[in-house]
Design a protein that fits this description.
The protein is an all-alpha fold. The chain has 4 helices and no strands. Helix 1 packs antiparallel against helix 2 and helix 2 packs antiparallel against helix 4.
Length: 118
């Protein structure tokens, strides 16, 4: 699996989060953002939640590749599990992503019910 697109997405998302927070802090110091409508606050929450999700999903292939290369460098490249993960890297990444999506499908309705997006 090519991790270069994931690295680009990860860095771009991280930079976008940092820039958004800095802009929000500047706006807070210049203008009172407490007067925002509830819909605007919900929009900001959804925006940052989406950015965090993209950040996490792009981090999985990078971390998996790092763990595999680290295990090979320390001499564990001949262990069956490391060989298997190395051969099925794309399937492992998709499996973790599916696991995350299932978790999101359970967590988002609970967050909506508890009022996170209000």
């Amino acid at each position: 699996m090519n991790t270069k697109p994931c690295l680009i997405v990860f860095i771009a998302t991280l930079v976008l989060i940092i820039v958004s927070v800095v802009i929000g802090n500047i706006l807070e110091s210049k203008v009172t953002l407490a007067k925002l409508s509830p819909n605007a606050v919900t929009g900001v929450k959804v925006f940052f939640f989406t950015l965090f999700g993209i950040l996490v999903f792009s981090l999985i292939p990078l971390l998996l590749r790092y763990v595999i290369s680290a295990q090979i460098k320390i001499g564990n490249g001949d262990i069956f599990v490391i060989k298997w993960i190395q051969l099925h890297e794309k399937g492992v990444v998709f499996g973790v992503w599916i696991f995350f999506v299932i978790g999101l499908c359970m967590a988002i309705p609970a967050a909506i019910k508890d009022g996170f997006f209000k």
